[in-house]
């Protein structure tokens, strides 16, 4: 089953990290991805731009509303993700706990629905 590990962290705190510390953190993330690859669990990963470059789009009736970011007064922002392929939620949670991002933020784990779940 595929799971998305959504990495949430405080962007303001991240901007304050010294470049040498950030390089060390990114090295940890690379090592984590290599471990996923070695376990044949890695599917994909990407980092996202800052929430200040994001937007929310809503359509209500014929009215389109676009709200530029940052759009929420929250402590942590969604900053990147891993998609993994593992046996079950328990294994996905174990991989999430190993993710270095879990030490400076939160890793949200969600199963990705299979296309067959939409068949009707």
TrEMBL record:
Q: Which InterPro entries match?
A: Dimeric_a/b-barrel, YCII
Q: Where is the YCII-related domain?
A: 1-114
Pfam families for the chain: YCII
Cited SUPFAM superfamilies? Dimeric alpha+beta barrel
PANTHER family in the record:
BLL7171 PROTEIN, BLL7171 PROTEIN-RELATED
What's this protein's family per the entry?
Belongs to the YciI family.
What protein name does the entry list?
YCII-related domain-containing protein
The major lineage groups are:
Bacteria, Pseudomonadati, Pseudomonadota, Alphaproteobacteria, Hyphomicrobiales
């Amino acid at each position: 089953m595929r799971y998305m590990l959504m990495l949430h962290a405080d962007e303001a705190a991240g901007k304050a990290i010294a470049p040498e510390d950030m390089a060390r953190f990114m090295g940890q993330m690379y090592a984590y991805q290599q471990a996923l690859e070695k376990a044949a669990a890695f599917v994909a990963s990407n980092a996202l731009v800052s929430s200040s470059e994001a937007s929310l789009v809503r359509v209500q009736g014929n009215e389109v509303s676009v709200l530029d970011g940052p759009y929420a007064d929250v402590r942590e922002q969604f900053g990147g993700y891993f998609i993994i392929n593992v046996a079950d939620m328990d294994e996905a949670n174990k991989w999430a706990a190993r993710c270095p991002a879990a030490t400076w933020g939160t890793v949200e784990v969600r199963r990705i629905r299979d296309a067959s779940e939409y068949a009707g």
